[in-house]
Amino acid sequence: DAKTTQPPSMDCAEGRAANLPCNHSTISGNEYVYWYRQIHSQGPQYIIHGLKNNETNEMASLIITEDRKSSTLILPHATLRDTAVYYCIVRVEGVGNAGNMLTFGGGTRLMVKP
Amino acid sequence: EPEVTQTPSHQVTQMGQEVILRCVPISNHLYFYWYRQILGQKVEFLVSFYNNEISEKSEIFDDQFSVERPDGSNFTLKIRSTKLEDSAMYFCASKRTANTGELFFGEGSRLTVL
Question: How many CA atoms lie within 13 A of A66 on its CB side?
Fold first, then answer.
């Protein structure tokens, strides 16, 4: 799986949009971009994933650049409860990779401040 | 909403003792995982399990570790003879289909080896 690079930490004001960048310049055509977060020492939580189109769900939006070498996770109205470590993970999809595990990097520690 | 449950939430044991960590995955999920996170470090993959056998394992998952699904609901991780460096949070995860990276994680079991 391709390597990802994220800033180690970011701050965001409560109520503002949090934009978390991720570089994955070596991503290949069959690799999806996944985002997870880990609040304090809880289990990681899936947020969103995409291949090349922008995606949106009830938690966040994912913007993937046209060349797919980078992406941005957007939390539109950050709350204090969004304070967490956010992980950008690139993963091959497809039949036959049932055991294909997620590889977590260091992530970005997002601190939402009042 | 269905969730992955883990027991115990915290276990303290003496070095050299056997430990069993238990997980109840989401009921219609078929793929099961154990990850661990040493305090302050990354979330690390240990093992994946499908169709009653190990699909993939990491270098961490040596002969001291074993997994099984004894009764079709529980998914257990056994550490035969614990070492100090086994102290960590252990996370169980499950997913429904092969072709997804959307894993559902439990809240974790904290293992402290003295």
Answer: 0
